Amino acid sequence: MSANKNNLFSNLKYDFPAGLVVYLVALPLCLGVALASTGRPDLLFSGIISGVIGGIVIGSLSGSSLGVSGPAAGLVVIVLTAIETLGSFEAFLLAVVLAGAIQLLAGFLNAGIIGYYFPSSVIKGMLAAIGITLILKEIPHAFGYDADFMGDEAFSQKDGQNTFTEVFNAIRYSSTGAIIISAISLGLLLLFDRPFMKRIQLFKFLPGALFVVLIGIVLNAVFINFFPSIALSGEHLVQLPVASSASEFISFFKSPDFTAINKVEVYTVAFTLAIVASLETLLSVEATDKLDPYKRNTPTNRELKAQGIGNMVSGLIGGLPITQVIVRSSANIESGARTKMGTITHGSILLLSAIFIPKFLNYIPLASLAAVLLLVGYKLSKVQLYSGMYKLGKEQFIPFIVTIIAILSTDLLKGIAIGMVVAIYFILRKNYKHSYHYKKEEYKDGDIITIVLSEEVTFLNKGSIGHTLDHLPENSKVIIDGSKSMSIDYDVLEIIQEFRKHGAPAKNIIVETRGIESVASVGGH
């Protein structure tokens, strides 16, 4: 990566258009997550607040060049339950502030190292699954069936529907106006994605998504005036709260209820939010770094600190809990962002538009935005990703596929957990097989067997080494060679010593060790 990619302002010609696209994607997602999380239309602005903070505050403090933070669909159920448990939104805001403080502390305690232990197969499975989920979840919005909130990721919905039944409902209750707008929008986006369009100077700075949104507004205006039966209104459009005065706008911001500080439930919610939000963030960080064309690595401890400060600020002024989110991050990357200015730009536009042009934003059809997200979903789950993982062999492909299926049939965190279990199984299986090299030769009274230990021998290997020692033939000679090993765990040394003292004499086996100086002293521990 050239040093130029780190210069924030020299890359504005790339970052500004990307930030604009992320803003268009983030606007309905922030509102949708807010409505689903609180169940109250009067708290819709809480999603905008957290989107602004995720963009400006966390974007400025984070070490991630391309990651975008905001309210996350993965926290919806936790937030909704927490508000009911604590009795008020203001008490919940206190829990958000405390969750941020816990994340900040976790960053200083270097807890971000957890992010380096997610297997690549699981992360790629997560990206593919989110791509498929986006496509399936946005089809209803593209068809004009907007019963579910935009940005939902879970398979099962609280209204009793699921991802697949919603697709069938969309076909059954489709809107002609929405289908026309989404089809034209998708066609234009595919056109803007062609290389020859990117050579046109105007489209280098103004993204195709902006033109798609403007055309969606114009088309719906035409429907209203000439074809009212197919015109879109109400839930089919963006529904941003509009303040009639400065004082009403200020009333959208809320303060935490500090009198709830003595409630045990507040701390339970805070710890739950901190753990889940941190895990989602670390997963997204890992996924975003894999998508980064310049292959930069995000410092995970710094990310936890940035997320912690962001959540503390969000809770103090009435916002929802924040995590780094892969849908917005991938939209940022696909739109050509090079530095964190893309993230900061999206947050800045979100703030300015909410203040100055909320009425205009409410003319945007969700069908236009669904087209943008459909293309993002397709790019996250391309066929090349599947064929590439298949070529890597079953140890990579099986955890990859299991992760996809698990996320699609449950939700992000549960799916990741299932994928992790399968990936760890293959890691342990491989580790079990490759902890040593076994060589057998003829010997006058039996066999000479050489066991050459690998460079790193951990407690994970003691089962396979113990099994091999237990099954050595009688009257043989075994040479255990640790001369190539940099580290041998005490557990393994103990097994070797126990075999030397008890197992070998019983079977008349001669044991010779090489390069394992500490073996002789193990029995004295």
From TrEMBL:
The yes or no answer to whether the keyword Transmembrane is present is yes
- Would you say which domain of life the source belongs to? Bacteria
Q: Where in the cell is it found?
A: Membrane
Principal subcellular localisation of the protein: membrane
Listed InterPro entries: SLC26A/SulP_dom, SLC26A/SulP_fam
GO biological-process terms attached to the record: transmembrane transport
This protein's membrane topology, according to the annotation, is:
Multi-pass membrane protein
Q: Name one GO cellular component term.
A: membrane
Q: Does the keyword ATP-binding apply?
A: no
Q: Which UniProt keywords apply?
A: Membrane, Transmembrane, Transmembrane helix
- A Pfam family name for this chain? Sulfate_transp
Protein name in the entry: Sulfate permease, MFS superfamily
